[in-house]
Design a protein that fits this description.
Strand order of the largest sheet: 1-11-8-7-5-6
Largest sheet: 6 strands, parallel
Number of helices: 10
CATH superfamily of the largest domain: NAD(P)-binding Rossmann-like Domain
Structural class: alpha/beta
Number of strands: 11
CATH topology of the largest domain: Rossmann fold
Helix content: 40-55%
Oligomer: single chain
């Protein structure tokens, strides 16, 4: 019987730990403040921002909200980022992605002070991760590490296969697994014999952006499967990159969608905020 890894429960544990930490910080006269910037009215982004504010409220983090119209220019957005960089009361800055097409995302992310980059997307933080230095770590991959550790799943010496090489999940995930002494293979759309490579994994992490693509033919019996994907299927039901029903009886542990990796991303964002003080 597979262990179904409960991301909601683990993320709540982390938020409760952070809540206690923030209470203690307040007693010492320290306030944690996160500035959230949303440009335009993308419905999914609005939901994410609302969830982040809710998490801040629960933990005791002060949140500042900047909701800018779709037609905001890049120069105006960069000026706001600069203002927040210089505001000593603000510990973390989060610019919600995606940005409208006329704004260069890379330029905006690079403008955020690395010390306030709670998303862990700044080139300096990515560089620090690649050479094993302490810095802000991308929230979703950091959440996957916490899920594994808090579920009692050993990483050291394990064969880990990651399907997906994005800057937000795949690449930082590979670096974090290396840091935990796993043997790591990164697969992508040009990988030959993907099924054979994936089947070698003791820990298979899927972040490829294709609904229910990975079935049990890709999975070694008894492997741990972490599904980072999230989609709406033809019936408007949430699903991941893994065909959960096909795989669940074949593995030792698996994350469901929803309720697996998703809740961890916000928990780790909150952790980055608290650690930025």
């Amino acid at each position: 019987m597979a262990l179904v890894i409960d991301g909601k429960k683990i993320s709540n544990e982390i938020k409760d730990e952070l809540k206690l930490k923030v209470e203690k910080m307040k007693e010492e006269g320290k306030q944690v403040t996160l500035a959230v910037v949303l440009v335009g009215d993308d419905p999914a982004s609005k939901v994410y921002v609302a969830n982040k504010k809710k998490a801040c409220e629960y933990i005791g983090i002060r949140s500042l909200s900047y909701e800018l119209p779709e037609q905001t220019s890049q120069a105006e957005l960069l000026a706001l980022v600069e203002k927040l960089n210089n505001d000593t009361d603000v510990n973390g800055i989060l610019v919600q992605l995606p940005l409208p097409a006329h704004i260069d995302e890379e330029a905006v992310l690079a403008a955020i002070s690395p010390a306030k980059d709670v998303d862990g997307f700044h080139p300096m933080n990515v560089g620090k991760l690649s050479i094993g230095q302490k810095g802000m770590v991308s929230c979703t991959p950091a959440g996957v590490i916490e899920l594994l550790k808090r579920s009692g799943i050993g990483i050291e010496g394990k064969e880990c296969v990651i399907i997906g090489r994005s800057n937000i999940v795949g690449k930082p995930m590979a670096l974090l697994m290396l840091k935990e002494n796993a043997t790591v293979t990164v697969c992508h759309s040009r990988t030959k014999n993907l099924k054979e490579v994936a089947k070698r994994a003791d820990i298979l992490i899927v972040a490829m952006g294709k609904p229910r693509f990975v079935n049990k033919e890709y999975v070694k019996e008894g492997a741990v499967v972490i599904d980072v994907g999230i989609h709406r299927d033809e019936n408007n039901k949430l699903c991941g990159d893994v065909d959960y029903n096909d795989v669940v009886d074949h593995v030792s542990a698996i994350t469901p969608v929803p309720g697996g990796v998703g809740p961890m991303t916000i928990a780790m964002l909150m952790k980055n905020c608290v650690e930025s003080v």
